[in-house]
Specification:
about 475 residues; mainly beta; 12-stranded parallel sheet; 7 helices; about 10% helix; 32 strands; globular; 6-stranded parallel barrel
Length: about 475
């Protein structure tokens, strides 16, 4: 690993061409005027020091990469000079051929940059095609046409790990985040973004017109203030392919519409909050009633399903990308089970909890309580809650026996609630029900085994919040969030 430092006036393309793989080029503070697009090189990362501005002449983008890999781009201000190129952007990525047949760009990280004044009408600040293991995180987008566009053509190989998370997007004349997949993609995550003042749609997560197949993905934890915005805050689905996307923990506020669906086979919608939204759900062109809707909060009231609509069984659901540092960090802890992963509430890949409230989890009853589960780590949210409640750990397991657990353990509200937080699949020691009652009662009096279920869940939500190291009350840990698990 080596570093090359450059200053304004340096020939950037020459510096990149001469750098060996593994090199990071550091841009000192100042304005770098760009009049012709700069080609990226595999293995060569670019780091802007505070005050490093890459400014377009107004007719070209800044960087482009075709089939490139292993590149980090961070710390810059990308200024489009209130214009920008057509069918491109500040950063343009594609396959080696510029189409479906080439080698996709791979392992690209675009983080902690500011994109501003890109008003090119036919493109986006980030114009991304045929990439995988690509991460757009912690950036700010403002005063532009479209922040992020992500697409594939028919015939492209299956692509995975496409993450847009923890970005702030405001003042886009058209769309905040847009996808158009005409091929098979998986692990697509649009999570934890803050979006406001968008001309049309804040998030348009759709398949393309021909062969799109979304095998897994999430729209999770986004905050969308739709004041001064047009269109619909979140558009989901499209056309014929599967759309296995979990839509949860989003907060949408101040708009006539909330989410719009078309063909969404495999999609689950639950745990979202709509504030001052007249129509939380609506149908788009090609709507075919394939979405599944659990319990959401609509203008302060809990609502299960979509009145007037009927659905089949809840599909498999998926967890988000890791939460941003400093916000609900406990959600990213991974807990594994011998059969499956634990719920997204603690950062796993597949949820099996029934969010309608119609079925109780039987996880605690499938494993002999009194046997410590090594998958519960002390630094995870369940580990912390367990410590507060005095649950057994590996050191004390030998002192317990399955016979001492009691046949009514699973029927106790507190035990069932904790099992629900584990998605109905985590093997947890729930023998110390009185300890759980105590933990719940400390933050929600009477939320023990004899209390109403929603009170117990409220206690768990508050307990989880109090155990979050940031010390803040987060929406994802709000007691209301967990009531649909009871």
């Amino acid at each position: 690993m080596s570093t090359i430092t450059i200053s304004p006036g340096t020939n950037i393309q020459k510096a990149i061409n001469s750098a060996a793989s593994g090199t990071t080029i550091v841009f000192q503070s100042g304005t770098y005027n760009v009049s012709s697009v700069i080609n990226l090189k595999s293995g060569v990362s670019l780091q802007g020091q505070p005050g490093a501005v890459l400014k377009s002449s107004g007719s070209v983008g800044i960087f482009q990469g075709l089939g490139v890999h292993d590149i980090n781009i961070s710390g810059f201000t990308f200024d489009g000079n209130n214009r920008g190129p057509s069918n491109s952007g500040a950063i343009y990525l594609d396959s080696s051929s510029g189409g479906a047949s080439g080698t996709p760009s791979n392992n690209i990280h675009i983080s902690n940059n500011t994109f501003q004044n890109w008003l090119n009408k036919d493109s986006a600040n980030l114009w991304l095609w045929h990439t995988q293991n690509t991460y757009v995180q912690g950036n700010t987008f403002k005063n532009g046409n479209e922040a992020i566009g992500w697409s594939t053509d028919v015939g492209a190989p299956p692509l995975n790990n496409l993450v847009v998370s923890n970005n702030t997007i405001t003042g886009m004349k058209y769309i905040g985040i847009e996808t158009a997949f005409d091929s098979t993609v998986s692990n697509v995550h649009i999570d934890y973004n803050k979006i406001s003042n968008i001309g049309d749609m804040s998030i348009s997560f759709v398949e393309g017109a021909v062969g799109g197949k979304v095998m897994s993905g999430t729209v999770w934890g986004n905050q969308i203030d739709a004041s001064h915005s047009g269109g619909t805050p979140i558009e989901l689905g499209n056309y014929k392919g599967p759309f296995n996307v979990t839509v949860s923990q989003n907060v949408v506020s101040n708009h006539e519409w909330g989410m719009m669906f078309s063909h969404t086979a495999g999609m689950a919608v639950f745990g979202n909050t709509f504030k001052n939204v007249q129509n939380p759900f609506s149908d788009d062109g090609g709507y075919d009633k394939t979405e599944w809707i659990g319990t959401n909060t609509i203008n302060g009231a809990q609502q299960t399903g979509w009145p007037g609509h009927k659905y089949g069984a809840q599909p498999a659901t998926y967890s988000p990308s890791p939460a941003p540092s400093g916000t609900a960090s406990t959600l990213s802890a991974t807990l594994s089970d011998t059969q499956s992963l634990a719920s997204a509430a603690v950062g796993a890949s597949v949820l099996s909890a029934d969010t309608t409230g119609s079925k109780a989890s039987t996880a605690a009853g499938t494993t002999a309580t009194g046997t410590a589960d090594p998958s519960i780590q002390p630094d995870t949210v369940l580990g912390k809650l367990g410590a507060t409640a005095g649950f057994n750990n590996a050191a004390s397991a030998s002192r317990d026996s399955a016979a001492g657990a009691g046949s009514d353990t699973q029927s106790r509200h507190g035990a069932g609630t904790l099992a629900q937080l584990a998605g109905g699949s985590l093997k947890a020691d729930l023998t110390n029900v009185s300890g759980l009652d105590k933990a719940l009662g400390a933050v929600a009096p009477n939320a023990g085994s004899g209390a109403r279920t929603e009170q117990a869940v409220g206690g768990v939500g508050a307990a989880l919040s109090s155990l979050d190291q940031s010390g803040k009350q987060h929406d994802v840990l709000n007691p209301d969030t967990w009531r649909h698990h009871a």
